[in-house]
Amino acid sequence: MDFESNNWVWEGMYYYPRLFGGIMLTAALLGLSTSYFGGISVPTLLYPFPYLSIFYKKKHEKKRVRVYMDGCFDLMHYGHANALRQAKALGDELVVGVVSDEEIIATKGPPVLCMEERLALVSGLKWVDEVISSAPYAITEDFMNRLFNEYKIDYIIHGDDPCLLPDGTDAYALAKKAGRYKQIKRTEGVSSTDIVGRILSASKSGDSPQDCSNSTSVGEADDIKNKFGAEKQAKGGQISHFLPTSRRIVQFSNGKGPAPNSRVVYIDGAFDLFHAGHVEILRSARQHGDFLLVGIYPDQTVSELGGHQYPLMNLYERSLGVLACRYVDEVIIGAPWEVTQDMITTFNISLVVHGTVSESNSSTEGGQDPYAVPKSMGIFQVIESPKDITTSSVAQRIIANHEIYVKRNTKKAASEKKYYAERKYVSGD
């Protein structure tokens, strides 16, 4: 037996000399000395004693670090995803708390997405291991102890931007005092406030609010498009401040291609304002093969298909949103509208799928069918969309509550402006 395998014995003798000596003496008195058995080594002789396994475990077992991060995660975007990616990097297992609708209403006002939708978005992220629903907005001492004892959390994580309670106190003060707090770098260029602002800047008023389970009707979608289009042409739209880098794309990517014999499934679309409907259709698509390839339409194509008001998120923002989804293996950034024979051969596509719910009827746009080639090859399939949510229906909820969100955004925008004015460089990310 080599030195490495016997090393736990010497560690035992060093750290527990009395216990180890007592065991050896007992063995000698019982006539079980190593000389009696000749070739039998000490580790073989002592291993039958169950309590000696503490030496072996000490060397070979390492406690997994569990970290916790919470949030409202309303209007999920790549900034949320990047925050959770950073949090996961600080430990081995990431537990995420999703704040309840009631607490959001009490502290911020009505959320755009209901709890069910926000849970689907968070659970669908590739870095999330466990989700706690209806987490409190403020981490009280009772909840913090529950995190430490019940969920075995080692550290509580938050971004470098301040999170203040209505009374002005730090929401993470208790975690900091306990020495169990770690900070990550906030992702610049996007926020839920910013996205709401992009929608509000394109409309002055809205129609009736939409329920979480209902999608926008064709007439309502046209109304939204007309409002967005007129305002965007008049004001020039709300510009994204996102600065894409190759490193961010790499951080979100799986970094692996399909195996030679993998069944590659392809699905394409705008995937604008990434929502629960997107998560569920991607989950369904992934179940049809071994590798899910997603085509993200360029901004110009999205505008042509959906109207001048779209996309709300630019190509790189939309690509990161899709890449963050656990069911996605790879994306084509700026995919062509038509699925060609060359595409199918290049990416070794086995099946092309399309959902029953989409922002526009792209299969008949301009009289040309973008899926004509895969249909002729017998590799096209329509799959049932698990949810009927669309980007338009989400935007409609904000427009319907225009005054509430204008007031909330005015306050939040001032807070974010102050943050950026006073912020300093934070390493990491």
Automatic annotation (TrEMBL):
Keywords: Lipid biosynthesis, Lipid metabolism, Nucleotidyltransferase, Phospholipid biosynthesis, Phospholipid metabolism, Transferase. One of its GO terms (biological process) is phosphatidylethanolamine biosynthetic process. Residues 68-197, 266-362 form the Cytidyltransferase-like domain. The keyword Cytoplasm does not apply. GO terms for cellular component: cytoplasm. Pathway: Phospholipid metabolism; phosphatidylethanolamine biosynthesis; phosphatidylethanolamine from ethanolamine: step 2/3; Lipid metabolism. Its EC number is 2.7.7.14. GO terms for molecular function: ethanolamine-phosphate cytidylyltransferase activity. It holds the Pfam family CTP_transf_like. It catalyses: phosphoethanolamine + CTP + H(+) = CDP-ethanolamine + diphosphate. It is an enzyme of class 2 (transferase). It comes from the Eukaryota. Belongs to the cytidylyltransferase family. PANTHER family: ETHANOLAMINE-PHOSPHATE CYTIDYLYLTRANSFERASE (PTHR45780:SF5). This is Ethanolamine-phosphate cytidylyltransferase.
